[in-house]
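step=encode ok
step=design start
structure_in=
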């Protein structure tokens, strides 16, 4: 079951969510929400994405709003805290927004920063979480192989759970994984899955120990589950800085995974000053059920008229590509 453009436009709401801290250059997150027979869904490809890529995100949103989803295997999803590329003295304050979380994902390799900044930030996270906490890093494909090897050697003392997308290409990931195997730091693939024409290439090349999957960029929950099954690799479900509505789709994906070995990156509602619904972590987890946005918050967080019109026109263009 699908939707025509009139169906989408009839309930479309565009929101603009201010963030507590700049995250990957974003200070305000925009998203378009709409309601279908199954409930609310989110269409929120980043503004720089071309229509062809953005239309994949729309496919996922329509599927979530119009079709029944795979049956959940769990009703609560453990999540990690997310630490943007902030100064080390801000880390504890950000962690406090993620009550009960035992895992922190620390952003590294931010443009304009240096390895020393990353080391200080990861050290602060380790000190805040203690020896039993889990720390993973995410470089967003920024390093080359030599830079990544040097950085992982410098960060190894902090007992990393894994390093997410340290390099850009599958070939680089495979080379780095071979180089750092002796350190015992697993390599996770994110962009090499969600932005790849062939998301299975990572597994064939032996380039990763686990994969990071996101519902919207992979055209929906069913396709994401297929990719996990076909790669045969453990999976971490993460968000693309979604609102609570999009996070609920991610939670539904995590709930349907046959195995869930890792805390998921679905606690990012805590990075917003206010969200369209309450889905911040509680005791280190979020529920796996659907989310209905609060009407008052939709009005309060409504985007400006020109941004609303921009998103509605984008919706029309992307729908025409389906």
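sequence_out=
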């Amino acid at each position: 079951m699908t939707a025509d453009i009139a169906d989408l436009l009839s309930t479309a709401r565009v929101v603009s969510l201010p963030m507590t801290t700049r995250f990957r250059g974003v200070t305000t997150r925009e998203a378009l929400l709409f309601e279908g027979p199954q409930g609310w869904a989110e269409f929120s490809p980043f503004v720089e994405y071309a229509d062809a890529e953005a239309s994949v995100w729309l496919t996922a949103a329509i599927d979530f709003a119009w079709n029944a989803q795979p049956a959940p295997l769990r009703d609560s999803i453990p999540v990690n805290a997310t630490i943007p590329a902030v100064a080390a003295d801000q880390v504890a304050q950000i962690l406090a927004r993620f009550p009960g979380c035992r895992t922190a994902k620390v952003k590294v390799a931010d443009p304009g920063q240096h390895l020393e900044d990353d080391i200080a930030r990861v050290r602060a996270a380790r000190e805040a979480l203690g020896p039993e906490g889990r720390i993973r890093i995410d470089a967003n494909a920024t390093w080359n192989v030599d830079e990544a090897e040097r950085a992982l050697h410098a960060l190894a003392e902090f007992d990393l759970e894994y390093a997410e997308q340290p390099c850009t290409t599958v070939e680089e990931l495979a080379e780095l994984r071979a180089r750092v195997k002796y350190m015992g730091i697993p390599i996770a693939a994110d962009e090499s899955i969600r932005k790849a024409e062939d998301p299975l290439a990572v597994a064939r090349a032996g380039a990763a120990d686990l994969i990071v999957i996101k519902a919207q960029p992979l055209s929906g929950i069913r396709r994401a589950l297929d990719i996990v099954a076909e790669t045969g690799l453990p999976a971490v479900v993460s968000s693309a800085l979604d609102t609570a509505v999009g996070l609920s789709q991610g939670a539904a994906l995590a709930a349907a995974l046959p195995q869930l070995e890792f805390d998921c990156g679905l606690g990012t509602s805590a990075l917003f000053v206010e969200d369209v619904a309450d889905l911040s972590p509680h005791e280190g987890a979020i529920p796996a059920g659907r989310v209905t946005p609060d009407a008052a918050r939709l009005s309060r967080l409504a985007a400006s008229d020109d941004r609303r019109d921009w998103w509605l026109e984008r919706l029309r263009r992307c729908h025409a590509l389906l």
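step=design ok
step=annotate ok -> Residues 305-321 form the longest helix (17 residues).
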